[in-house]
From TrEMBL:
Keywords: Glycosidase, Hydrolase. PANTHER family: BETA-GALACTOSIDASE RELATED. Residues 12-324 form the Glycoside hydrolase 35 catalytic domain. The lineage of its organism: Bacteria, Bacillati, Actinomycetota, Actinomycetes, Micrococcales. Transmembrane segments: none annotated. Residues 406-509 form the Beta-galactosidase 1-like first all-beta domain. Belongs to the glycosyl hydrolase 35 family. Residues 542-600 form the Beta-galactosidase galactose-binding domain. InterPro entries: B-gal_1-like, BetaGal1-like_ABD1, BetaGal_gal-bd, Galactose-bd-like_sf, GH, Gly_Hdrlase_35_cat, Glycoside_Hdrlase_35. The keyword Hydrolase applies. The keyword Hydrolase applies. This is Beta-galactosidase.
Length: 629
């Protein structure tokens, strides 16, 4: 079959006519399915003729026995809606996607095999990829333009030149796409210089480049390194993402639009990364590690032209003005009316969210039940736990030592901790360790992570001597690394728990898959005794907070959690995402389809603080300074 897009030395031909690809990235897995059409129409309103999306393997295969293409994982429906709205589609199926998404899209369960090597021609790894592609690629292939659909371009792997140089691996993926029915244009995407292109390109796939500035320099490089082909920026980084504990990123529409003009004026096709960033619902956000560990925030707004709630920004208008010089577009207000869109989506008014009751989670069955015993602390992957918390529990003997500096108890050392741990001794909070980089500290460079127990000596051993106590450790996965040499990182206390002269073995291990626990946690919160506001934190935390608000109609909302500590929020049983008072994000976007007319239930699991106030606000709250990029 003949591909709809034909690459020539003078640019793309679409159906035999000269064509600029003006595409925008919208990831179906970062948008509520009931809002897909709205967001795609906003892309059309900006002037795009194409939509691009990654495919998140871990969304579709949460465990080895489950494969789903329904709900938010209904890739086919997303592509079909895009086609109905007149958009071509670019699909980037990975298997690796980066995307600031947990584990770069790889399921955590494939890491159970400690000998597995990702993104190389390891037979065991390729067998997993092939089995996944056997299920995925037919969904894409059946929607190609050559078969009456709208998919015009499919990517081979993703930015491989930033990871490896195994051409045999890339060839295997390329051939696998063709064998499974992909006959439209194949592409690769890499950084804008020879050092990336030499590792990431493969014969039979058009090379594209990713960048955010210095367009004219990139075009000069591309003419030299990629001659005789259409040039395309597969990722035009017109904004940027945020890490917890860092600054909120912004970029003016004026500077970004100037780069876009240089691309389009010189015949370079483009894909906005992102056109609409969306939300890392649940605990799906990934992390980066460039010297220090940096987990990505729940908001993936990206300072994109179409904001997280669909608002059309100043950047949207600046981009549209540039695109209108290359495509005939109606006046914006006329275009929005044709598409049935409001530039500013409706939102619930600001107001207080009533905190109905707060309970100590440690007093519930979830914290006290027995669990399977493991000779050493298992990893999340050993237990099949993708995301959430892992509770480790066992009895240990502690001894009080009295010296010149006062009474003390030997600390616990957590070797190779990924990522953060909270320690409780006989029901008393002892302290937290790990992931200090997000707080701007350098303690993450210390090895091992240490939790001091000396401050508990008077309470646990007031008369000295020794005694047996129960220790619980909550370990949190803050996001598996999605880019670079640490890709494939496992979670948990991977090296073990040490005290004084030896490892402590035989731990009960109880997985908490928080994204799926809304109903259970709500029942626990309803059935346990409430605690008084301001009760002593070290004997109440973590807490479950039940709250509510009234809504007269179904509209978007922003939940203000600036008075909360660190945890996970649910609205009407939907896991909205992680929050953390280290910022910069201090509110959570709640999409309109999650809201009910009448009473709406809010549930927080907070590990660090008893929130005394929650509220609805009309737009996102970002703390700290902003920075341009």
């Amino acid at each position: 079959m003949t591909a709809l897009l034909e690459p020539t030395a003078d640019g793309f031909l679409r159906g035999g006519e000269k064509h600029l690809v003006i595409s925008g990235a919208i990831h179906y897995f970062r948008v509520h399915p009931e809002q897909w059409r709205d967001r795609l129409r906003r892309l059309v309103a900006m002037g795009c003729n194409t939509v691009e999306t990654y495919v998140a393997w871990n969304l579709h295969q949460p465990d080895p026995e489950t494969t789903t293409f329904t709900g938010i994982a209904d890739l086919g429906r997303f592509l079909d809606i895009a086609g109905e709205e007149g958009l071509d589609a670019i699909v980037r199926p990975g298997p690796y996607i980066c995307a600031e998404w947990e584990n770069g899209g790889f399921p955590g369960w494939i890491l159970r095999d400690r000998n597995l090597r990702l993104r190389v021609s390891d037979p065991d790894y390729l067998a997993l990829v092939d089995a996944w592609f056997d299920m995925l690629i037919p969904v894409i292939a059946s929607r190609q333009a050559s078969r009456g659909g709208n998919v015009v371009m499919v990517q081979v792997e993703n930015e491989y030149g930033s990871y490896g140089d195994d051409r045999q691996y890339l060839a295997h993926l390329r051939d696998g796409l063709r064998e499974r029915g992909i006959d439209e244009l194949l592409v690769t995407s890499d950084g804008p210089a020879r050092m990336w292109l030499t590792g990431g390109t493969v014969e039979g796939a058009l090379a594209t480049v990713n960048f955010g500035s210095r367009t004219l320099q990139v075009l000069e490089m591309a003419e030299r390194e990629l001659p005789g082909q259409p040039q395309m920026c597969m990722e035009f980084w017109n904004g940027w993402f945020d890490h917890w504990g860092e600054e909120h990123h912004t970029r003016t529409g004026e500077t970004a639009a100037s780069e876009l003009a240089d691309m389009l004026d010189n015949g370079m096709s483009v894909n906005f990364y992102m056109a609409h960033g969306g939300t890392n619902f649940g605990m799906s956000a990934g992390a980066n590690h460039h010297g220090t560990y940096g987990p990505t925030t729940t908001s993936y707004d990206y300072d994109a032209p179409i904001a997280e709630n669909g608002r059309l920004t100043e950047k949207f208008r600046a981009f549209r003005e540039v695109i209108a010089q290359h495509r005939q577009l109606p006046a914006l207000e006329e275009h929005l009316a044709q598409l049935g869109l409001d530039a500013e989506p409706a939102a619930l008014p600001a107001g207080e969210v009533t905190i109905d009751r707060t309970v100590a989670l440690r007093g519930t069955e979830r914290f006290t039940r027995s669990a399977e015993v493991h000779p050493k602390p298992p990893s999340f992957e050993d237990l099949g736990l993708e995301r959430g918390l892992l509770r480790l529990s066992r009895k240990i003997e502690i001894t009080r030592n009295d010296g010149e500096d006062g009474p003390s108890i030997a600390p616990l050392h957590l070797y190779d901790l990924h990522d953060r741990a909270w320690v409780y001794v006989d029901g008393i909070y002892a302290g937290a360790a790990g992931a200090d980089a997000v707080l701007g500290a350098e303690a993450d460079k210390q090895f091992p992570a240490t939790v001091e127990l000396a401050h508990l000596a008077e309470r646990l051993l007031p008369e000295g001597g020794h005694r047996t106590v129960r220790v619980e450790i909550l370990v949190e996965n803050l996001g598996r690394i999605n880019f670079g040499p640490s890709l494939g990182e496992r979670k948990g206390i991977l090296g073990g728990v040490w005290q004084i002269i030896r490892f402590l073995n035989h731990w009960e291990a109880d997985p908490w898959p928080l994204e799926d626990m809304a109903e259970e946690l709500a029942a626990l919160a309803s059935g346990a005794a409430a605690v008084e506001p301001g009760a002593e934190d070290d004997v109440t935390l973590p807490v479950l907070v039940q709250a509510s608000f009234e809504a007269s109609e179904q509209k978007d909302a922003f939940l203000d959690v600036s008075d909360a500590g660190h945890g996970v929020a649910y609205v009407n049983g939907f896991c909205v995402g992680r929050y953390w008072n280290v910022g910069p994000q201090q509110s959570l976007y709640v999409p309109a389809p999650v809201i009910r007319e009448g009473r709406n239930e809010v549930l927080l699991l907070d590990l660090e603080k008893q929130p005394t106030r929650l509220a609805l606000v009309e737009e996102h709250i970002f703390g700290g300074r902003t920075t341009g990029r």
